[in-house]
Sequence to fold (114 residues):
Amino acid sequence: VQLVESGGGLVQPGGSLRLSCAVYGFSIRANAMHWYRQAPGTQRELVATISERDSAYYVDSVKGRFTISRDNAENTVYLQMNSLKPEDTAAYYCKTEIAWRDYWGQGTQVIVSS
Fold:
């Protein structure tokens, strides 16, 4: 099982980015998928979750700005991030659980700065 994130980069405040998490070796169709982030010197925090039934959860700080979605046919999860703020700067990771084991991607860096 491999999770591969992409789409990070440098963006100005107020800008947008779309992160992707492609999953290999496992079908995400029946799994909840999560996006986490970790800024330097802080703990990794859950940003968004999408259930196998497409219910979404967001941490309060990103509600109304971020949207998580999934494409089961492409075995990929997305995180659309709009109205980005400097405090959104972090490494972003996707995660899933299979048979009570956590699988993480390698992360993609997002820097929000003018």
In short: The first strand starts at residue 2 and ends at 6.
